[in-house]
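User: Quick sanity check before I run a bigger batch. Here is a single chain. Can you write out its predicted 3D structure?
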Amino acid sequence: MNEIRMVDLLSQYRKIKPEIDQSIQQVIESTAFINGPEVKSFQKDFENYLGIKHVITCGNGTDALQISLMALGLKPGDEIITTDFTFIATVEIIELLGMKTVIVDPEPDSFNISPGSIEKAITKKTKAVIPVHLFGQCADMESIMNIAKKYNLYIIEDAAQAMGTDYSFSNGVIKKAGTIGNIGCTSFFPSKNLGGYGDGGAIFTGNHDLAEKIRAIANHGMKVKYYHSHVGVNSRLDSIQAAVLRVKLKHLDEFNLARQKAANIYDNVLTDINNITIPSRTSDSTHIFNQYTIKLKNINRAKLRKFLQSRGIPTMIYYPVPMHLQDAYRHLGYREGDFPVTEDLCRTVLSLPMHTELTGEQINYITDNINEFVNHYVSM
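Assistant: Done. Predicted structure follows.
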């Protein structure tokens, strides 16, 4: 059995090596390293895949969020609602732009932001909501879009962990994650379902005027070279990353299916192990498992991780500390106990190896060892 890794990018690369190598070589020979033909071609391919009019690439996923808030014309003091249970970048850009972060709890099962919590947190100063499609499954976007319409709010989707996920509305309409709100954002960090071989990001919108503004902001505020119509930033996807992503986009559905098959194998065993809750699936969204995250009950997480590590099985905790208890964000005024769902998840979640090259043999080895730990150490 091969070494078990949390993410196995090397084996994935070997599978598509001829395509990747040829694509990179073409960029090198063209010497069009910044905003070259590969970037434009990738943007067009991605627009076709997502079924949206405009994809604007940028330097990374955090930049994508920042540029989106800048393009919407939001101002210091405006309130932005987002989830407590996510990576720090979501709050980071709100604070950097001088806006006010309003944190709410997620749903305990899906891990995604709770629409009910969003509505309770809305004030006269609320201007936008940033739902994060966590671990590969969409938040309840139909409810969130209804709330946005009711209160005249912008919706910026953070879809970095859900590229390729389908969301189904009650009227039968199906849309890709990131194409539902006013703006969608993603990261091409290598471990994402659609990841490059370095940093990168993209912004999606169906609004032509907004897209033009986003393009300008991402390029020093320029629509025409040396003529600056907006305060902007320097955030561009380089052509080599676009070349890699263009190849990997062709395989995205295949890769997501491999993750789903791996998740099903996990489910078949873990669902019968006491004190372990497998990832939930909502009826309105597919799940493409950027992470396979279980919840533990009455199991010492640190001891389980140490035991699995001794057997050659890596694990990760996404996320060990709630956003509202991070030292950098104490100024927001939140205290321990304010968000019980998030605090409970941070104590109990554990992510197992999940990637496109994970084999049934490896998953069975992982689950056998989890079962051994639970039966021998927890029941003692």
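The chain has two domains: 9-250, 252-378.

User: Great, the batch can go ahead then.
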